[in-house]
Design a protein that fits this description.
Blueprint lengths: L4 E3 L2 E3 L5 E5 L6 E6 L3 H16 L8 H17 L1 H12 L3 H22 L15 E9 L2 E5 L5 H14 L3 E5 L6 H13 L6 E3 L4 H9 L5 E5 L2 H14 L2 E5 L4 E5 L5 H13 L9 E7 L3 H13 L19 H16 L3 E2 L16 E4 L6 H4 L6 E7 L5 H5 L4 E2 L1 E5 L3 H10 L4 E4 L14 E2 L2 E2 L4 H7 L1 E9 L2
Parallel strand pairs: 6-7, 6-9, 7-8, 9-10, 11-12, 11-17, 12-15, 14-15, 17-18
Antiparallel strand pairs: 1-2, 3-4, 5-21, 10-20, 13-14, 16-19
EC number: 1.2.1.3, 1.2.1.8
InterPro entries: Ald_DH/histidinol_DH, Ald_DH_C, Ald_DH_CS_CYS, Ald_DH_CS_GLU, Ald_DH_N, Aldehyde_DH_dom
Protein name: Aldehyde dehydrogenase (NAD+)/betaine-aldehyde dehydrogenase
Length: about 475
């Protein structure tokens, strides 16, 4: 596959400087990728602006634009196994996650938004002014910067790319420097699908590339998924320049286990929700509020399940949990394990690692955690789980909401009425009841509070990449 940047339909090595992307399971270099510069960003934005202004894409007949998105979906599906293996090698997630969830979800998003292309409409409305016809049009924004994270590189890219293209925008994509390879492979499919040059551009590199994109005057919209810290910087810059912005940021999802919950089902669902992708999920279940009478039972079963998980290279058939993405992420997770112990939480037994290659972290389950401990308050983005007892059900909502984050939450109860009343009061963009963290292209996704601004997926994705124009016509 090509590992150069894609700018205006041409592969580019930039100024020749490169950086390595690693296999996190071994630490070995997979490829050298161009280190983009501000000049590359300028060239990519200029190409996207020309493609937008030419109206070759935005002005294309909707059915024709939909056909190209469906063609891209077909190409991705045909190449799904290679994409899954590449995602696993570059990011670390088990093949069951990349091949069974991430790549199919990306294909689903392309097809879902291809279906919207021919259905994006304005409205007519009666005005209290005689002899006037009033209607609206929903129009694309222009050049959109799509800045994607390293935890689900291809899937989260498609959450942004599919609606941006469906609505007629042109884009510059900046993938996370830790995991650029599936984005670059997709760029090759964009060319193969016949999408016009300049509509999709990819610039690789570190944080400076992202900053150059955010501050570029030719960028009309920034869509970013990543840390709350970086999201605040992007939001401030976009606010000063009055750019459109969508931010999907961090989380510290509470999992409320009611006294009547099926404990075994809750343990199984929380293991999946807490340790999916080695806990590198912004909506990971990380704070488990358990009735005090069942706290020890739940914690012991959760710890036993976590300890039994098979760690290994994501390409191995028997791997249940892969490595974290980098040495930095590994060290951060282990630092929080030490912090939890220092703060007085009980760490359940962790099996030793088989070897010291790669960036592996054994799951850590803490019980007897209190709300003020750092492991219960700060986003770790690794396999570190906290079990917190409660005595009074009336305190649950206040404790679950006692966080700066508000991306997701989950409730476990046999009483559906109780579960739904709790769901209505929890401050989170998504609440699951008695289930792991599933996603669907038709379901809106995004956070409250420090977990972000705006929504992706569903009709919300169309709204995120369009603006409304009012047209008045005098009929007399």
């Amino acid at each position: 596959m090509r590992t150069e940047m894609l700018i205006d339909g041409e592969w580019s090595k930039g100024n020749g400087t490169t950086f390595p992307t690693l296999d996190p399971a071994t630490g070995e270099v997979l490829a050298e990728v161009p280190e983009g510069t501000e000049a590359d960003v300028n060239a990519a934005v200029a190409a996207a602006a020309r493609a937008f202004e030419s109206a070759e894409w935005a002005g294309m007949l909707p059915a024709a634009r939909a056909k190209l998105l469906l063609r891209l979906a077909d190409l991705l599906e045909t190449d799904a196994d290679a994409f899954a293996r590449l995602e696993t090698s570059d990011q670390g997630q088990p093949l069951g996650v990349s091949g069974g969830f991430a790549v199919p979800n990306a294909v689903e998003h392309l097809r879902y938004y291809a279906g919207w292309v021919t259905k994006i409409t304005g409205v007519t409305a009666p005005l209290s002014i005689p002899d006037v016809d009033y209607r609206t049009r929903r129009e694309p924004l222009g050049v959109c910067a799509l800045i994607t994270p390293w935890n689900f590189p291809l899937m989260i890219l498609m959450w942004k790319l599919a609606p941006a293209l469906a609505t007629g925008n042109t884009v510059v994509v900046k993938p996370a420097e830790q995991t650029p390879l599936t984005t670059l492979r997709l760029a090759g499919l964009v060319k193969e699908a016949g999408i016009p040059d300049g509509v999709v551009n990819v610039v690789t590199g570190g944080p400076e590339v992202g900053r150059a994109l955010v501050r570029h005057p030719g960028v009309a919209k920034v869509s970013f998924t990543g840390s709350t810290e970086v999201g605040r910087e992007i939001g401030a810059q976009a606010g000063r320049e009055l750019k459109h912005v969508s931010l999907e940021l961090g989380g510290k999802a509470p999992s409320i286990i009611a006294s009547d919950a099926d404990i075994d089902a809750a343990v199984a669902g929380n293991l999946m929700g807490g340790l999916l992708n080695a806990g590198q999920v912004c909506a990971a279940y990380t704070r488990f509020f358990v009735d005090a009478a069942r706290h020890d039972e739940f914690a012991e079963k959760l710890a036993a399940g976590a300890a039994s998980m098979k760690l290994g290279h994501g390409l191995a058939d028997d791997t249940q949990m892969g490595p974290v993405v980098s040495a930095e992420q590994r060290d951060q997770a282990e630092r929080y394990v030490r912090i939890g112990q220092e703060d007085g939480a009980h760490l359940h037994d962790r099996a030793p690692l088989d070897d010291d290659r790669g960036f592996f972290v054994r799951p850590a389950v803490f019980s007897g955690v209190t709300d003020d401990m750092r492991i219960a308050r700060e986003e770790i983005f690794g396999p570190v789980l906290s079990v917190l007892p409660y005595d009074d059900p009336d305190e649950l909502v206040a404790r679950a909401n006692d966080t700066v984050y508000g991306l997701a939450a989950v409730i476990w109860s046999r009483d559906i009425g109780t579960a739904n009343r709790l769901a209505a009061r929890v401050r989170a963009g998504t609440v699951w009841i008695n289930m792991p963290p599933f996603l669907d292209a038709a379901a809106a996704w995004g956070g409250m509070k420090a977990s972000g601004l705006g929504r992706e997926m569903g009709w919300s994705g169309i709204e995120a990449f369009t603006q409304v124009k009012s047209i008045w016509t005098h009929l007399a």
